[in-house]
Amino acid sequence: MSSAIPTQPTMQLPRGARISVLISVILPPMALITVMWLAWGSGFGVLDLSIFAGMYLICGLGITVGFHRYFTHKSFDCPRWVKYMLGIAGSMACQGDLYWWCAIHRKHHQHSDEDHDPHSPHVGDGGRIKRFIYSHLGWLFRTEQPDQDRYIPDLKSDKDLKIISDLFPFWVLLSLIIPAVLGGVISGTWFGAFTGFLWGGLVRIFFEHHVTWSVNSVCHIWGSQPYESHDHSRNNPIVGVLALGEGWHNNHHAFPTSARHGLAWWQFDSSWIFIKMMSWVGMAKKIKLPTPERIERATAVGKSN
């Protein structure tokens, strides 16, 4: 990527719009923490918190490490059994079947913040707030099916992935059954099964969805842009932590095939830590990272909103 090509100009949002975006990032996790605190001891406890956190990590890493970095961008190689594990874990996040998810994301990269981007807050009709809402979740109700033969021919030729993708409804059901069974078995009560289903299933899906959607919306509006990416992608530290490293979005758009998104030492990237740990036990190999020379060429004047 040559630094001679100009970086996409920064859109400076009004102060009110920037505050609204900031609230949309901070409010959901704060609200969830408040609800957990209020419900502590009466419908929510250590067991429910453990099930919620465990399911969040398993399904979240299935999306970030599996659907995103492995299947969509081919950031590393792995054995066949690990491929199945990542595909199933990502499907259990309930964000769409593997084929659809990867096709949508590749289309996003091809048309990032242009007319054919499935979920950009910078194109379309209406004001900034309307476009933000559309990029966050409105696009899910209006987008057309991406051309899978065009965007994911490599994935469609893999018979293992067809099985995983076709069984998507089963993986969704499994993601709700597992926390209910864990809650019931560990607590020895039907109420424990119900709260496990509630916190490890429904609440986890709701929260994880909004964190993932914030990468599409918030990370194209608010944050820093240290690298040339030819779009409005931003590094957002809050989303970076909550989305298991996906919030270092400008880094990702500048180096799409990199298995590591948090390129600086202080950019916490739990998905990269997991991939690194996988490599130690033979679960990941041929890991792709940008060279120092490529990073230097892509470095632009840092900007923030």
What would the keywords be for this entry?
305 residues; 14 helices; disordered N terminus
What does this structure look like?
The chain is mostly helical and 305 residues long. It has one domain (15-298). Helix content is 59%, strand content 0%. It contains 14 helices and no strands. The protein has helices at 15-39, 46-72, 80-91, 98-110, 128-136, 148-151, 153-156, 159-166, 168-187, 190-217, 237-242, 249-254, 270-280, 292-298. The chain is globular and about 60 Å long. The relative contact order is 0.15. Mean pLDDT is 88; it is low at 1-13.
Number of self-contained structural domains: 1
How far the N terminus sits from the C terminus, by CA atoms, comes to 24 Å
The biggest beta sheet is recorded as: none
Helices and strands: which structural class? mainly alpha
Give the H and E element order: HHHHHHHHHHHHHH
Shape: globular
The overall pLDDT, averaged over residues, is 88
| Unreliable parts | 1-13
Beta-strand share of residues: under 5%
What portion of residues is helical?
Answer: 55-70%
What is the number of E strands? 0
Q: Which radius of gyration do the C-alpha atoms yield? A: 19 Å
Helix run count: 14
